[in-house]
Write a structure and sequence with these properties.
Number of helices: 12
Shape: globular
Radius of gyration: 25 Å
Number of strands: 2
Strand order of the largest sheet: 1-2
Mean pLDDT: 84
Order of helices and strands: HHHHHHHHEEHHHH
Strand content: under 5%
Low-confidence stretches: 230-241
Distance between the termini: 101 Å
Structural class: mainly alpha
Length: 351
């Protein structure tokens, strides 16, 4: 009898060890996947992306040294690089490491709150740029007919970002990408039954810049409110503060500091590529208005805002303390990009 009890005890102990080992393995795998999926996408070359989507090759040029991307990009029609950049941004949201995570309902994606914040920031910039393409860049004037493919593409990107079924968010965004590709194909095809248009005019760029100014201003304000030391007197416990204009701004809760920071990172990443595309497709008007340097300033500040972080968590130190304050650093770069955007708007609005 004692022998049977001893065997039973050994078996139960062995089962416990097996379950413990399996649990440990699952935890390690989840942590590894979370670390991989939580990486921010790298920047991409907008000209290389546009050429790849247009399937241009060196064979289309004379023999000799392989042409550069700038030479190949000269074969692209106006507006192609801008639209290809939007399609690439959307494709990155869906196919980066871990795929699209905002609508995940299973681990480890459901625990990665920073990645959905990043995705939402990039998505907002993608929506604004697609709306500008549909309502301004692809229309000759306010009374002109809208492009049929862009009228399809834009609403798909406004679908709710956290739907996991019936239909899934990824399926709707993929339809938006396909509609952008159809518009791009018509841009490149001079014999299309309904030729696609793209107008790189100062008034069109001015209208889009107005939206960018509001987005950057919002992010800068929220990042400043993010910091625990920002505009607060010692001992102040209220979750509100007054900004420079005297209006009451909501203090971001401590647990949401990283969410606002990563939303700003995603928005900066997407806007950086959009501005590079604008610099290419609006090249002539920017030179004519002497605004190229202003766009370069915006691009430089957004590049600085995407400097890799040295800490695994978002630090919230005081102004001259031992630790950095990531939110205030990010707010500084975005505020400077916003100041350049204000200059760009004024330049584009001049006669």
């Amino acid at each position: 009898m004692a022998t049977i009890e001893k065997i039973s005890h050994i078996k139960s102990k062995g089962t416990g060890w097996i379950l413990g080992a399996l649990t440990l393995i699952v935890v390690i795998v989840m942590l590894a996947l979370g670390q991989w999926w939580g990486r921010e996408p790298v920047q991409f070359n907008i000209l290389e992306s546009a050429i790849s989507q247009a399937e241009l090759t060196a064979e289309s040029h004379t023999e000799g040294e392989a042409p550069s991307y700038e030479v190949l990009a000269a074969d692209l029609p106006l507006g192609y690089t801008y639209t290809a950049t939007l399609a690439h941004i959307a494709d990155t949201l869906l196919n980066k490491s871990g795929g699209y995570i905002s609508n995940d309902i299973a681990p480890p994606g459901v625990f990665l709150d920073n990645v959905p914040s990043w995705e939402f920031g990039a998505l907002v910039m993608l929506r604004d740029a697609t709306t500008a393409l549909r309502n301004h860049f692809a229309r000759d004037q306010s009374q002109s007919e809208q492009d049929p493919d862009l009228a399809i593409a834009e609403p798909y990107f406004y679908y709710e970002p956290n739907s996991w079924a019936l239909p899934a968010t990824e399926a709707e965004y993929e339809k938006g990408i396909q509609a952008l590709h159809k518009y791009m194909a018509r841009l490149k095809d001079p014999g299309a039954s309904k030729k696609a248009q793209f107008y790189s005019r100062a008034d069109n760029l001015w209208q889009y810049t107005e939206v960018v100014i509001k987005r950057l201003g919002d992010l800068s304000t929220r990042l400043s409110s993010n910091a625990s030391s920002s505009n607060f007197a010692p001992g102040l416990t209220e979750l509100e503060l007054e900004d420079a204009s005297g209006k009451v701004a909501a203090k971001v809760p401590w647990m949401e500091i990283d969410n606002v920071f990563y939303e700003a990172r995603g928005a900066s990443w997407a806007l950086l590529h959009i501005l590079r595309a604008i610099k290419h497709d609006f090249h002539d008007i920017l030179l004519d208005k002497r605004a190229m340097r202003t766009v370069d300033v915006m691009i430089r500040e957004l590049e600085n805002s995407l400097t890799p972080t040295m800490s695994p968590m978002v630090l919230d130190g005081s102004g001259y303390g031992l630790f950095a304050n990531y939110s205030l650093s990010m707010a500084n770069y975005i505020a400077r990009a916003n100041a350049a955007a204000l200059d760009l708007r004024d330049i584009m609005n001049r006669g």
